[in-house]
Each structure stands twice: as C-alpha cells, then as structure tokens.
Amino acid sequence: MYKWDRLKFIVQNGVVAVIRKVNPSIIEESIEALIEGGIKVLEITVDSEVSFNVIRKLKTKYGEDVLVGAGTVLDKITAKTAIEAKADFIFSPIYDIETIQLTNRYGCISIPGVYTPTEISQAYSAGADILKVFPATSLGPNYFKDVSGPLPHVPLMPTGGVSLENMAEFLNNGAVAVGVGSALLNKEYLANKQFDQIQLIAKQYIDKFREVKK
User: Fold this and answer.
1) Using one digit for the tens of pLDDT, what is the confidence trace for 151-197?
2) Residue ranges covered by each domain of the chain
3) What is the distance between the alpha carbons of residues 34 and 196, in angstroms, rounded to a whole number?
4) Closest CA to 71 of 8, 141, 154, 159
5) Which of 100, 168, 160, 164 is nearest to 132 (CA)?
6) How far apart are CA 189 and CA 177, in angstroms?
7) What is the pTM of this model?
8) CB-based contacts of 106: which residues, under 8 Å, 6+ apart?
9) Which of 14, 112, 136, 199 is buried deepest, with most CB atoms within 10 A?
10) How far apart are CA 93 and CA 155, in angstroms?
11) Residues marked as catalytic
C-alpha cells in the first residue's frame, strides 16, 4: 500500500485506537477485540522493546487490512526502529523536525503532536501528513473550526480526551479523524478480560464515525 493510500485509509476509517501499556499477556486479545469491533488503525505506544515486536507481529498477521503505527515517538532514532518493525505511521506527542524528516525519507506517515497554530503551520511545512492536536480537550472542538478557517488545507486529528460524547463535535468542526485511548480500552474490562465489552465499545465508535460522515 502506497503512502497516499495509507493516508486515505486513516481518513476513511476515522478512529485511531491508542494502545498504551496494556499487559503483554492480554494485548493480542485486546487488539483482536478492537479489530473485530471495526477498528482498523492502531497506534502502539513504544514504551518498551515489546512494543516493536507487537507492531511487527500485527503487520505480519493482518498485512494491509489493518494499519499499525508507533506512538509516543520522541526522536528520529525511535522512529527508525519503529519503521524497521514495519510501522505504517509515526505518532509523536511533540513537533520534532528531525523525526518528521526521517519518517518522510522512509515513505512512512508522519503525525506529530502540535498545540498552537504556529506549531501546526511549521510542522505541516516540514512535511507532516496529519497533525495530532494534543491534548485536544484542553482546546475543545471549536478550536478545530477556528484553526481550519485560516489553515483549511491542514488535516487535524484530536487526541487526548476524545469520547463518544464529544467525538462528533470534533469531526463536525474540521477534524479528519480522532485518536482514542483509555475510552476504548477500559481498564476494568482489561483487568477482567471482558474482551466482548471492548469489542462493543469499538463498534460504537465506528458506528458514530460512520453516522457523522454519512
């Protein structure tokens, strides 16, 4: 799948599941529940060496049916390691130009974290493909409408505090997709291995996205 096709895939599917510090003993079952619920874009935060193995394993298993990226990437060295593990995209909580440049060099999707209009403009000019606005709830859905006025060409993705209750408002105000973490992977459900409930929540998010985009 070419880079443009992967970008289109993210926008068409709309919900990026942020998988952070899930117990390795249940991470495969948790991810399978998300996928069965309709989630097709997964961000694996690179908190340990296990994370890169998870990315590689998921890409081997699902191929182009599911996009798998690396999250919480703070520098170009980590980005390179993730790309070598077959990551489809690189998510950062910050704007680091070297990480963007390296990611582009290898034909991978770059999604850096930004907060202000200046950061948004600079990161996009540096080659970012989508801008992760983080933390989104500190700014609110109206921020996306306001920023999209002078910067309509820049694709924005809110992450941090996105829920079923506010997701539609973010999308209706200009976001091209949303990043969702703990709201999808409920700690209680994980602890009790209630994967059917995780699948149900995933389906609710996908249904909500499709409803907004109809």
Assistant:
1) 999 999 999 999 999 999 999 999 999 999 999 999 999 999 999 99
2) 3-209
3) 9
4) 159
5) 160
6) 25
7) 0.95
8) 80, 83
9) 112
10) 16
11) 43, 132
